[in-house]
Amino acid sequence: MAEELFAQNEAEQAEHDAQVAAREAAAAKAAEEETAAEETAAERAAAEEGLAEKTVADEAASGSADAADSADAADSADADDPADDFVADERTTAQLMADMFCDLLLTGAVDGHGAADEARDALSSIRATVQVTVPATSLSGHTVGGGEVTGYGAVDDDTARCLAAMTSSWVRVFTDPCTGVPQCVDRYRPSKRQRLFLRVRDVQCRFPGCRRPAVKCDIDHTIPYAEGGPTCLCNLEHLCQRHHTVKHETDWRVEQLAGGILRWTAPTGRTHLARPPGTVRFRPDGVIDPDFVDAIIAESMPTDAPF
């Protein structure tokens, strides 16, 4: 009996010791885990602090780079400032005129002068105007002499023909055959006011049935300019390129009547009248209700009239 009690006590003591050892091991493990967590948190905080310091350093470096770029840009702008590159031309007015005259004679342009690009561009836009008066019979070779350059004097026929051949526009001058006094002046190209009037009057191509807008058409002389047709409103009309060619290259004929009316004659002999398409039209009185007019008049009269 005593041995059984002794054995039971030893078993209980061993169980108690095992429980104590387990509790101690669990406590030690918890302490180790807590220590590891604290070390991990410390390392994370140190890493974040290092990253923040690096970010601040990078921003400071970027700010320095931006400031350097701004300084470089300012220096570049100062270097490109045309005011710093301005070079005064010390030549006198007479010397400039002489140099430009030589350039015009040698090259036909004066864009080699000026201290800046703006000045050279302005000089390059200068165009000389030379007025040459020469009889048409001299140009055709039927007579000799008569050519003259305004401001210079008489020129020979070959020089007059050469100058006339290089011009882009001619002005026709009609003179009195006895006195030689100019009677009227005419040119091939219509003036700005004539073009505006024709666009308003014609609106579209004046060939029968064509509706092409006038802004996309040519201004044609009804009687050709080369045949003596004047550049006046009574001899001008709008024709699209197609019907402009039809007028000059086929058997169609056209005559301009009063009021800008064109009378076209087809190759078959049939005539067609092309009237200017008016853009403003007034309604005839016959389509207005007379009762409506009387009502309007009655409303406009005073109510206290003595009659």
Brief write-up:
This protein is an alpha+beta fold and 307 residues long. The protein is built from nine helices and ten strands.
Description:
Helices cover 49% and strands 12% of the residues. With 307 residues, it is an alpha+beta fold. It folds into four domains: 1-33; 93-124, no CATH class; 131-168, no CATH class; 170-307, no CATH class. The strands form four sheets. The protein has a three-stranded antiparallel β-sheet, covered by helices on one side. A hairpin with a 5-residue loop joins β9 and β10. The mean pLDDT is 76.
Distance from N terminus to C terminus (CA atoms, Å) equals 157 Å
Looking across the biggest beta sheet, what order are the strands in? Answer: 1-2-3
* Strand segment tally: 10
How do the helices and strands follow one another from N- to C-terminus? HHHHEHEEHEEHEEHEEEH
Computed structural class: alpha+beta
The proportion of residues in beta strands is 5-15%
